Amino acid sequence: MNVFEKTVKIKDLGFQVSISKVFSVSTETMWEFLLSEKGIAVWLGTMSIDDFEIQKPFTTDEGIEGKLTVFIPNCHLRLKWKPKHWEKLSTIELRVTNRKGRASVVFHQTGFFEIEKQEEMRTYWKSIILKMNDELIA
Q: How many CB atoms lie within 10 A of CB 106?
């Protein structure tokens, strides 16, 4: 399975971790999955879909806190995000683009300055991509 990873340091923004994969589904199918209760549970955590609204703070059953700040249908979304063991929020951007009829999914995360967290986040988002793949082919 081809999962692409990239980490860069951005002045004033700390590290950016990017994890991406092209899935054998359409972008429409991918968006439907990502915004379903099942899909949100895979990539964000267990929560009511009613709590995933623009500018509404949420906490998942796993203790992940956040707030959806940007939502452009069939393009991308951005949220403030932090796992329960972090002190500060970071920014997650989730993009879905069309790659020859298949959905390319990219998670970008910025806003953390500790070098140790870059490996933690690369591993975390890679595991999310793999879970998404498993759910989509099930």
A: 19
Q: Which residue type is seen at 38? A: K
pTM of the full structure: 0.90
What integer pLDDT is reported at residue 129 of this predicted model? 96
d(C-alpha 61, C-alpha 40), whole Å: 12
Q: One-letter amino acid identity for 102?
A: R
Find the CATH number of the domain harbouring 99. 3.30.530.20
Can you tell me which residue has the tokens 């806190």?
65
Task: Return the amino acid letter for 84.
Answer: K
Per-residue model confidence as pLDDT tens digits over 48-88: 999 999 999 999 999 999 999 999 999 999 999 999 999 99
What dihedral angle (degrees, nearest 10) is formed by the CA atoms of 84, 86, 88, 91? Answer: -80
Q: Are 131 and 123 in contact, with CB atoms under 8 Å apart?
A: no
Which residues form the domain of 81? 4-137
Q: 7 near 133, Cβ under 8 Å?
A: no
Domains contained in the chain, number: 1
Q: How far apart are CA 66 and CA 81, in angstroms?
A: 4
What is the amino acid identity at position 13? L
